[in-house]
Structures are given as C-alpha cells and as structure tokens.
Here is the input.
Amino acid sequence: MIESREQNARSLALLALERVEKDRAYLDRLVDQTLKNSALRPEERGLFTELSYGVVRHQRLLDFYLEQYLDRKIFKLDLATRSLLRLGAYQILCLDRIPGPAAVNESVKLSAPRAKGLINAVLRRISENKNTLKQPDQISNPVTRLGVKYSHPDWMVESALKELGEQEAEELLSANNQRPVLTLRVNTIRADRPGLMELLEKNGIAVEAGKFSPMAVVVKNRGIPSQLPGFREGLFAVQDEASQLVALMLEPKPGEQILDACAAPGTKALEMWQLMEKKGTLLSADIKENRLQLLKSEAERMGLEGIELLARDMTEPLKLPDKITAGFDKILLDAPCTGLGTIRRHPELKWQRSPEDLKTLAALQKRLIRNLANYLKPGGVMVYSTCTWTPEENQETVATVLDSGGFELEDPTPRLPGSAQELVRDKILKTRPHRHG
Here is the structure.
C-alpha cells in the first residue's frame, strides 16, 4: 500500500508515480491497493486514478512541453521534482475542470523547499502559454514525432511501423492511450451470460455482450470489479476477450489431460477448468509459487477447485504426475513476453521495457516450446500465445520451432466461435487494440 500523511488525490498520485519509476511497480496494482486502503473521499478517488494513469500514459508528451521551459532535460532533475512537474502539467494541459492556478499551487504545496521556485516558475509558464506551446506535429523526424505525440519510446514506434505501416501504427499508438473497457468472463459452472447481464442491469450497471467470446460481458460504466454484484458469489472473472479466445482455441474438453505451462495469475486456467466441467486433469505450472496462490484463491471464490498446481521452471525437465503416462493431450503456453498489447492497462510498460527484452524473451519462448514439446502426446495440440505485437516474439519464434521439425501449424478457425474466426490470418489469431478493442 502507498502510505502518505496527506490522504488526498494529488499526494497519493505523486507517490504512485514515484513507485512506478523507481521500483518498476505495476500501476494497476498500486492504484487498486491505494483505493482499497486509503481514506480518500469519493470525489477524490476518481481524480487519483485519473492523475496516476494519465501522467504515465502521456509522460513523454508532458516532458516535451515541460522542457520548453526547463534549462535542462527533465531526467536531470530528481525523481520527486520531475514527477511533480508532470503531475502539474497534466492537470493544466489535459484536465479542463482544474484551473491552472490551482494546479500550480497544489503542486508547489507538495514540493520540497528547494524545488518550490522551479516548480512554481515552470508550471506558471505552462499555464500562461498553454495555447502557444510548440506541438509535436512540428517535429520533422516521423519516429520522434509519433513517439512524442503518443508518448511511446522510439523503439516501440519503430516496431509498430515495421509491423503495421505508418497509418495503422499511428492508430495503434493512439489506441494504447485510451482507457480500456472492463470485460468479464461468465463462470459457466455457476451462471450463464444472459443471467449475469440481467443481474448487473437490475443493479443499474450498463452492459453489453462481448463481440467475439460467448462468455464475455462488457461493462460500459466501469467500476471496481470486486464491488460488482455477483463477484463474491464467483459468477464471473475479469478477463479481456482476446485472452478468452486463447483458451477457447485450445478447445479444452472434460476428461482431457491438459498442461497450462505459464499459468499465473491463472485467469486462463480457470477458464479452461470451467470448460472442462472440472473433469479430467489440469496441471497449472508457474515458476513463482506465490503467484500460484492467486490462482488458488480465485478458484475458491469461483467454485473451481481441483486444478493441480506446480511451481517449476518450465524450461527444465518435468516430473509428471503418475497418471500422466503418455503425455498431455493439450498444452497452453501463454508465454512470458514484452506485453506491448496490454499497454492500455499497463502504460508503465512503455517506460519499463527495452529492445534488449525482445531478444531475451524470444530466446526464452523458444526454450519453453522445445522443452514442453517433450510432454505432448503424438497428435496433441499446443497453443502458443503472447500479448504483444512484435514479430520477434510471435511469427519468428513459431517459425523457428516449425523449422526444427515435430510440429505443424494448424488452422485454429474451426476451434473458434464464429465471430472470432474473422480474426485469423495465415493460421494465426491476431487481435489489435485499435481494430478489435
């Protein structure tokens, strides 16, 4: 939990920003923990969330504006000072309901004595000149222009341009800065989609059926999931539609023996187990035992106990349960990856990932596939999935494995719901934030 003597939106947002940059913390967890444990007034809770996510989402653009009135690069300043400048600039430039002078004054109040003069001077100039600031569209280099305008590092912009071309890359970068919708997966062991939608609507919550998964419910007026009707009763889990399609593509059936190789926090494992009607064997493995506890607690909430848990490095040889005599029928490898497809939910990834991560993770992904292949029955199916767009972690990883023999690429279209079949190209299911939400 973030601790602060001043329980107000700005002070808590400042602490969140410092934790994200200094400790490489996950922003969504910080925000959730703070909202759960703080004494913020209701009107302050929304402002805290807006400030925390907004500054991280638009960090590079804010820096671009701030450096027009700084005599040095912003990274030459200490963490607290640059975080406060970003926090103030976001309120001035992006939130119409907060007057500029108020944003300046509140930022100065939170600053260290030695930084008050700098923060006051820079933010006042930003406020007074907000309509005449130099804009990123004036930058001649296309990579830098897009990187500043949509607040992404240059290497991510280059990757998106390489994969999608200029027009669609810009659409993706823009979509990454939008607020994500809240999507639920109905727990078919305890409910069905029409029943869950009726329950939510009766409680004044606007919902609609998902477009691609038959178990998806989209919440229009998003709130805190744990406070929604049906949460305590385990009627649903929080899960994006793209994630739901991954497990549907494996087509888990009652009585099968299935390995979920990198399972934590277990969302896809629980989906598979409900599709298996809790019959058969589902072994969910992860290298971190504490993260498997998240799966265990969610299983208890949803009445989906019975999944076997294994804390193990999946690049190492496995000792299988005695009942798995001939290998697994199916394996899901939801591989560790750069996660660039989840930037809407995790904007901090823009500043925490590096090009070196691509090489490191692609090598890990290949080791995982090669090792897990030894535990798949002849004729068995492995679904390989990532939540990133980079070809190094997707097409190139798969091609290397196919070239080594033992596997062939199967068309997943027949395994998917009708509405999702249109997402398959060249036997690969691809979803994009800007195309499919």
Summary: Residues 1-5 have pLDDT under 50 and may be disordered. DSSP finds 18 helices and eleven strands in the chain. The first helix runs from residue 9 to 23. The two ends are 31 Å apart (CA to CA).
